[in-house]
Amino acid sequence: MKTRHCIFFLLIVITITAKAQKQHYTQAVEDRIRNVENGLGGWVKIQDSTGWNILSRMAYYRINGLSIAIIHNYKVEWVKAYGWADTAQKIPATANTLFQPASIGKSLNAVGVMKLVQDGELDLKEDINSYLKQWKFPYDSVSHEKKINTLELLSHTAGLSVHGFDGYKWGQPIPNILQILNGEAPANSPAVRSIFEPGVKFEYSGGGIEISGLMVEDITGLRYANYMRKTIFKPLGMNHTFYYSQLIDKEKGLATAYRFDGRPIGCKYYIYPEEACGAGLWSTPGDMAKFIIELQLSLKNKSNKILSAATIKQMFTPQVDKNVALGFFIEEKGGQTYFHHTGLNEGFISNYYASVKDGDGVVIMANSDYLTGEKDITEEIANSVAMVYGWKGFYTPAIKKEIIVSESILKTYCGKYKFNGTPEPTVTVFWKDSKLWFRDSGSPLPWLMHFTNNTDFFFHEVTFNTHSFTKGADGNVDGFTIKTHDGNFNAKKIHN
Q1: Higher pLDDT, residue 157 or 18
Q2: Would you place residue 7 in the very low, low, confident or very high pLDDT band (cuts 50, 70, 90)?
Q3: Fewest Cβ atoms closer than 10 Å to its Cβ: which of 16, 162, 195, 382?
Q4: How far is CA 95 from CA 80, 92, 288, in A?
C-alpha cells in the first residue's frame, strides 16, 4: 500500500507542476499534446488496449522530471516538462530546465568538426596526428600501421577504446583532456588506445570523439566550449546550452540527477570534463530541437547557418556500418530515414529522432539513468509522437491478446530460476499486489508478466521474445524457456 500511495502522490504532484507551466497553444496543438501524453507504447500492444499515460509511465520508471520538444513542419510546435527538476527543493521541471543530454552531444560535436572540414581547415581522411599539437596519438602494432583519420573518429570506426566516461562526484579532482586521453590520474578512465585496426568495423568510442575535440582546439586555437558556442550555439539561438566549464551563474536552472529508482545519486549531479563526447553538456529539448531543425532545413538549402546541404548529406552517409554515420545513427522505418542518438550519464537520459526528408522530430530528456534501448520511456514517447503525427511505419507494435490466468496457477510459477551455465539463481518470479512479477538480476526494476495462455508470457520491457513455463514429468513447474532469434535459452526452477 505504501508504494501505491507514493505513486498516487507523485501523479498529483506531476499534474500540478505541469499545469503551472502551461503555455498557450491552438486547440489543434492542445489535442495533439493530449494524444501524445496518452498514447505511449512499447514493442507490443495488447489487443483492444489504449496507450499508456505519460504520468503513469513516469511513476512506473520512477522518473522525477522529464521534458519533451516536438518538431513539426520544421518548427518547434510545442515544449512541455513534467515533474520535478529537484524533488528535495520542490523545484518543478520547466521548458527551460537544463538536463545533461550526454551522448546526443556527439551530434553537435560532429557538426562543429565538419564546419572545419567545410572551411578547408581539416581533411577528413588525413592522419589525425597532422592536426594534433598538444598531444599525439601513440600508434602501436595493434593498428597494423594504418593511420586513423577524422572520418573514422566521427563514425566510431577508428578501432579505439573507452566506450564512455563515468564522471566525477563533487569535490573530486578533475582531470584535463590530456590526462583523460592518457588515462593518467586523476582521470578515472583508461587511456584511449587502439584495440584493432581502423576502418574495419564499428566500435563505439567516446574516447575517439574526445580526440576530435582536442583537434578542434589545436586547429582553431580556441577552447572547445568557446568554439562550439561561437559556431553552433550562438548562431542557432541555443541560449540554454552550455558545457560545464561555461555554466558559472546558470546552476540554478540545472536539473538534479537521480538513479533509475528515483533516488539521488549522492550529489546534485556528476561533473564531466569530457566535452566533445557530450558528457559535459547541459541543454534543453527545445534547444536541441533548434539544432535538429537547422540540419533538416540545411538539407533543403533553406537555412545554412552552419553547414551546406552537401556537408549534411555527407554526415548522414553511413560508414562501414549501415546504421552509423558521422555523429548520428541512421534508421530506416516505414520507408522513411531518421537520424537519431541517445544519451546516458549518471542520473540522466536523453533521446531524439528526426526525419531526414521531412521536418518532424522529437527530443526527450529526463533526470533518471534508466535507459535500455527499445524498452524505456524515451522510446515509448517517440512511438506515441510517431502515431499522433503520422510518421508512417515508425511504430509497428506486435499485437497480442492477453488473458486472465487464475491466481492458483500463477502462484505455482513463483520461485527462483537459474539459467544453464550460471552459478547462482538469476531470476525471481514473485506475487505482489495481486500480480505476478519477474525480476532478472541484471534489471533495475521487476517486470510485470502478461500471459497469452496459461504458460506463455511476455513483457513490455523485453522485445520480440517468446517465453514459456515448462513442466516436468510430475506435472509441476520445473523452469521456463526463452525463444529468441539467437536460439533458445532454458532456465531451471531451483526452489519455490
Answers
A1: 157
A2: very low
A3: 16
A4: 6, 10, 12
Grid cell 537520459 — which residue?
A: 349
| Residue-wise pLDDT tens digits, 24-46 | 899 999 999 999 999 999 999 99
Residue 281 β-bridge partners: 243
Taking alpha carbons only, the member of 308, 288, 287 closest to residue 299 is 308
Q: Which residues contact 356 (CB under 8 A, 6 or more apart)?
A: 296, 299, 316, 336, 337, 338, 339
Residue-by-residue DSSP string for 190-220 = ----BSS-TTSS----HHHHHHHHHHHHHHH
Residue 451: other Cβ atoms inside 10 A: 20
Q: What is the enclosing helix (H) or strand (E) of 483?
A: strand 477-484
Q: Which tens digits make up the pLDDT trace of 254-280?
A: 999 999 889 999 999 999 999 999 999
Q: Which residue has the cell 562543429?
A: 112
CA angle, 166 then 172 then 175, to 5°: 65
pLDDT band with cut points at 50, 70 and 90 for residue 22: low
Give yes or no for a contact between 467 and 482, defined as CB atoms under 8 angstroms apart.
Answer: yes
Instruction: Compute the residue count for the chain.
Output: 496
Per the listing, cell 544519451 goes with: 343
Segment 81-94 shows an average pLDDT of 97
Question: Under DSSP, is residue 241 helix (H, G, I), strand (E, B) or coil?
Answer: coil
Cα separation, 444 vs 423, in Å, equals 20
Report the C-alpha gap between 416 and 454 in whole angstroms: 19
pLDDT digits (tens, 9 = 90+) for 275-314: 999 999 999 999 999 999 999 999 999 999 999 999 999 9
Q: Please report the pLDDT score of residue 231 as a whole number.
A: 98
Calculate the dihedral angle through the C-alpha atoms of 101, 107, 109, 115, rounding to the nearest 10 degrees.
-150
Whether residue 449 contacts residue 465, with contact meaning beta carbons closer than 8 Å, is answered with no
- All residues at 6 or more sequence positions from 16 whose CB lies less than 8 Å from its CB, including other chains: none
Contact by Cβ (8 Å): 155, 320: yes
Give the Cβ contact number of residue 170 at 10 Å: 10
Model confidence, pTM: 0.91
Residue 131 CB neighbour total at 10 angstroms: 19
Q: Which residues contact 36 (CB under 8 A, 6 or more apart)?
A: 54, 68, 70, 381, 384, 385, 388
3-class secondary-structure state, position 168: strand
